[in-house]
């Protein structure tokens, strides 16, 4: 199975890039991983139209989803999972023959309804609001943790 992470925006802080690069490299020991950063829509200046921005970013995200991919959209109102559930979820898709799993992190204004409709699952990393940059780092860490749980490696400590 291949994992693709589609994100709106780049990581702005060095420590976020360092962490994301570290976990990305770790994940790639188990599965192919691609990260595609889409440009944030800056329409509107000081009074941006968040609906229009979500729509435009959503259209760009939808164009990048390969046909047949299993899509997970990240949203604070989605369903949460424990680390063990993430591991079981990944394991199920790996055994079930899912060729590509696409995880989507929206921009500062979230995801468009069209992206949510395309997703087979809406996942929440926390009931708290996270920046899209923090969400990327936390997601990568949880993917890595899930893969180590599947392999009974000591990273998870349980």
Q: Can you tell me the CATH superfamily? A: SPOUT methyltransferase, trefoil knot domain
Q: Which architecture would the CATH scheme give at its second level?
A: 3-Layer(aba) Sandwich
H/E series = EHEHEHEHEH
Annotated CATH topology: Alpha/beta knot
Domain unit count: 1
The mean pLDDT is 95
- Measured as a percent range, the helix fraction is 40-55%
User: Which value, in Å, is the CA radius of gyration?
Assistant: 15 Å
Distance N to C terminus: 26 Å
Q: Which regions contain 5 or more consecutive residues with pLDDT less than 50?
A: none
Structural class category: alpha/beta
In CATH, what is the class?
Alpha Beta
Instruction: Count the E strands.
Output: 5
Largest sheet: 5 strands, parallel
Q: Approximately what portion of the residues adopt beta-strand conformation?
A: 15-25%
Q: Which overall shape is indicated by the principal axes computed on the Cα atoms?
A: globular
What does this structure look like?
The chain is α/β, with parallel strands linked by helices and 158 residues long. The protein has a single domain (2-156), classed as 3-Layer(aba) Sandwich (Alpha/beta knot), CATH 3.40.1280. It contains 5 helices and 5 strands, in the order E-H-E-H-E-H-E-H-E-H. It has helices spanning 14-27, 50-63, 83-96, 113-118, 132-150, and strands at residues 2-8, 33-38, 70-80, 100-105, 121-124. It has a 5-stranded parallel sheet with strand order 2-1-4-3-5. Strand 3, helix 3 (83-96) and strand 4 (100-105) form a beta-alpha-beta unit. Helix 1 (14-27) runs parallel beside helix 5 (132-150) and helix 3 (83-96) packs across helix 5. The radius of gyration is 15 Å and the shape is globular. The two termini are 26 Å apart. The relative contact order is 0.23.
